[in-house]
């Protein structure tokens, strides 16, 4: 053997069959070009095999790339016959290389379909009548074609699975709880959704937390003792202010999101929609009965395309992707300090003169918009006998649009002053932004799923 061949790296493919013709076996795997494409992108493509390469109706079976450790040997054996018995003798052994990667076909490959016409005495393949050959004339499209319909789905899974034929959809296993079993206590139950309150003027709000969330909080405290101090910090915030947004609490406390997901359901109820949508309301506080709660209502602000300032601010998706792009996943030693969590910027929760928004769409609370024009509107109390509205709460009509106009005017001044060297705009377009701000309403539509690239927020 030549030990120098160990440096020669080879790739092994376990062909699911007896290979008598190597060229046909390679064509079944997609040919040299198809194999090369799979080999160059092992993390993106799987090696496909079709026992009928010319038949596009055949469902391929795929092989996964796995690491292995082996060698490829070439052994010459001499067969002789002595006294009517076959004997084998190894003449030479040659080392061809080492194998570090192997492709195994472990998926099912019994979904083979061939267009066959069985009207005659013997079944005949009609593949040539269905597929154009490339030299056919237009008559090929006019003549009636044999009916051959391929099943839309072959199978949902590539590998066989065990299936329990029971009346119940899920098999529930009984667990005998042991108070000393820390692993059982640490495992949280799945499938319990967050209680989201659909706003209406009839149903009463919950006054205390659900027992499930209180139990989860107690379990997490055992695993993570600092959670108790974080809970007290958030609880103190709700004593100072009855309604908070999740981002605003993250901005003030710098608490991890994983901890807030456990703490918040124990202190407040989440508003799914309505004037206080996407906010957390403290248990025992009903904003529908308190006119003073108007300052905590949600203001959906979206940066407009007008005056060119829309292109100066990134969308929320780009901000998140930018943060993820700079991260490099690598193994760290235990001695190294953990990376700090992503903090919420002030521009994502608060607005004041001279500040630019951190993204194109932000859900403010009216009290966090520190503009004299907005504060003057909030200072006006509702008239006696005024009832809470399902859309605009305690505020008069068109308040949201008026506040958006004020915010956009300040944003435009700040951004144009900052980017004056790189931006050239006509003076007429800038003046029309302030005078004809109501014209943007004609281009407003419903809130898109991503909530980032709309012209302006719709009136509530």
Automatic annotation (TrEMBL):
Residues 11-114 form the Transcription factor IIIC subunit Tfc1/Sfc1 triple barrel domain. Keywords: DNA-binding, Nucleus, Transcription. Residues 432-445 have a biased composition (Acidic residues). Residues 148-302 form the Transcription factor IIIC subunit 5 HTH domain. The keyword DNA-binding applies. One of its GO terms (biological process) is transcription initiation at RNA polymerase III promoter. The keyword DNA-binding applies. InterPro entries: TF_IIIC_su-5_HTH, TF_IIIC_Tfc1/Sfc1, Tfc1/Sfc1_N, TFIIIC_tauA_Sfc1. Residues 425-460 are annotated as: Disordered. It is found in: Nucleus. Signal peptide: none annotated. GO terms for molecular function: RNA polymerase III type 1 promoter sequence-specific DNA binding; RNA polymerase III type 2 promoter sequence-specific DNA binding. Its main location: nucleus. Transmembrane segments: none annotated. This is General transcription factor 3C polypeptide 5. It comes from Papilio xuthus (Asian swallowtail butterfly).
């Amino acid at each position: 053997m030549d030990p120098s061949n160990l440096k020669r790296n080879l790739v092994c493919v376990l062909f699911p069959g007896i290979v008598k013709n190597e060229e046909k076996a390679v064509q079944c795997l997609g040919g040299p070009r198809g194999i090369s494409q799979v080999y160059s992108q092992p993390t993106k493509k799987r090696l496909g095999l079709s026992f009928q390469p010319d038949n596009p109706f055949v469902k391929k079976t795929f092989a996964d790339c796995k690491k292995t450790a082996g060698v490829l040997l070439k052994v010459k054996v001499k067969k002789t016959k002595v006294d009517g018995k076959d004997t084998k003798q190894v003449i030479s052994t040659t080392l061809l290389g080492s194998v570090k990667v192997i492709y195994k076909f472990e998926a099912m490959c019994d979904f083979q379909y061939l267009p066959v016409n069985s009207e005659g005495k013997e079944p005949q393949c009609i593949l040539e009548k269905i597929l154009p050959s490339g030299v056919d004339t237009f008559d090929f499209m006019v003549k009636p074609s044999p009916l051959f319909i391929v099943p839309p789905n072959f199978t949902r899974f590539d590998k066989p699975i065990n299936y329990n034929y029971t009346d119940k959809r899920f098999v529930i296993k009984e667990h005998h709880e042991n108070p000393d079993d820390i692993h059982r206590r640490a495992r949280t139950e799945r499938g319990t959704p967050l209680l989201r309150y659909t706003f209406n003027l009839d149903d009463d709000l919950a006054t205390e937390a659900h027992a499930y969330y209180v139990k989860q909080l107690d379990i997490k405290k055992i695993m993570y003792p600092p959670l108790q101090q974080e809970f007290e910090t958030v609880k103190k915030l709700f004593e100072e202010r009855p309604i908070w947004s999740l981002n605003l609490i993250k901005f003030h406390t710098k608490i991890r999101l994983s901890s807030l997901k456990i703490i918040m359901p124990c202190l407040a109820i989440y508003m799914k929609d309505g004037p206080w949508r996407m906010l957390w309301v403290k248990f025992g506080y009903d904003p529908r009965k308190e006119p003073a709660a108007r300052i905590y209502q949600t203001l959906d602000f979206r940066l407009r395309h007008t005056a060119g300032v829309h292109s100066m601010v990134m969308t929320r998706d780009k901000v998140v992707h930018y943060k993820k792009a700079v991260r490099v996943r690598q193994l760290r030693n235990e001695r190294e300090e953990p990376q700090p969590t992503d903090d919420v910027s002030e521009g994502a929760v608060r607005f004041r003169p001279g500040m630019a928004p951190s993204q194109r769409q932000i859900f403010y609370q009216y009290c966090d918009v520190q503009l004299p024009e907005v504060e003057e509107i909030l200072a006006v109390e509702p008239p006696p006998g005024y009832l809470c509205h399902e859309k605009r709460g305690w505020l008069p009509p068109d308040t949201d649009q008026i506040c958006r106009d004020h915010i956009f005017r300040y944003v435009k001044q700040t951004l144009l002053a900052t980017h004056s060297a790189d931006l050239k705009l006509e003076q007429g377009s800038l003046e029309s932004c302030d005078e004809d701000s109501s014209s943007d309403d004609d281009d407003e539509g419903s809130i898109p799923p991503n909530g980032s690239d709309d012209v302006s927020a719709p009136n509530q």
